[in-house]
Write the structure tokens for this entry.
Amino acid sequence: MKTGSTGAELAVASSSGAGVGGRRQRGMGLISWLLLLVLTALVALLGLRVAPVYLESMTVRSVVSDVARDPELRGARPSDVRSAVMRRLQVNNVSSVERGDITVERSGDGIELIVDYERRFRLLANLDGVASFREEAMVDP
């Protein structure tokens, strides 16, 4: 006497994904897509706001290392080294480093050059970001 399905047949039927309505949901819904889109846009906006700050810091690092290796500045006075840094920063359109951010001192090994500065930038509405940078180099004697 066969009255219905066996236990194994029921397990197969329930694992096929057929729900009460006969459909199985696949993928993300509209709200999930909108949240993902908003999150992606927020990350992209933050990246667009932060990237120029780090590109500028790479320019400052390059200027500091170039000045430290410049053969014309060997044996120069600290004021000449500071002027060379400021001139190269101006040529490279770096406006966030001011004259007071540059420290040039004589040491036993030569002239120590330090550029220590902060850069403020707008993130969203009334939220700002602050990035601190410090570049050091020794100008050859």
Q: What stands out?
A: The chain has one domain: 27-139. The chain has a mean pLDDT of 86. The first strand starts at residue 102 and ends at 107.
